Amino acid sequence: MPPRPVRIALPLLATAACVSAAAAGEIRGRLWASREAARLAAREPAALAATGGRAARATHDRRLVRAQRPVAEAVVYIVEIPDKVERRLASRGRRGRSRPPMPVMVQVREAFSPRVVVVPAGDSVGFLNRDRIWHNAFSVSAARRFDTGKLPPGAGDTVTFQRPGLVTVHCDVHPEETGYVLVVPNRAWTRPDSLGEFRLPKLPAGRYQLRAWHPHLGELRRTADVPKRGHGAIELAF
Fold it and tell me: Where do the TM regions start and end (predicted)?
């Protein structure tokens, strides 16, 4: 079943109105791929050891890792941040710090890899054919319609994404190929690790609208707070 379209709506009221720029902290959290995964993690190690020892704990850990596999394709982001913070995040390539390279979605073994790419609005994605056969990349999504045309082996193209939203990418040579470019509204975004833990960039104290998205599990919408001191914490489950 194809994922439902994601509409990223920017609020009319500026987030900066409820944000104090006096302090900065991170939003840290954990994203569970399912409620089952959250329940598995809630089981105390001591209780597992008492009921089944090391074997029970090992079985539990394997089940948890398996339940959390989908979070590898999840994205966590903030809907709106102050302009000053966005400028700071955008200038990370200055002052001697290296700027992240342009993401590239490669077509290899008749599949898009990685299947999910994330870029802030205004940035570009490269599309590269590393197969020994011809490919194509196109989208008819409302956030960005494009068509690279036929790409021979070794050829590529670059597409810029100006509007936030979900862009589903296809290949007209191989209809089974599907990829996703999630265009987020700013640079306050992150990907969870293999166990679902995540950490967003530092933000001024205040309340923010947080989204967690997955190509098949859908979208979660929550409010997250950054305190005047320390960091904010949040836990989410698809």
Answer: none
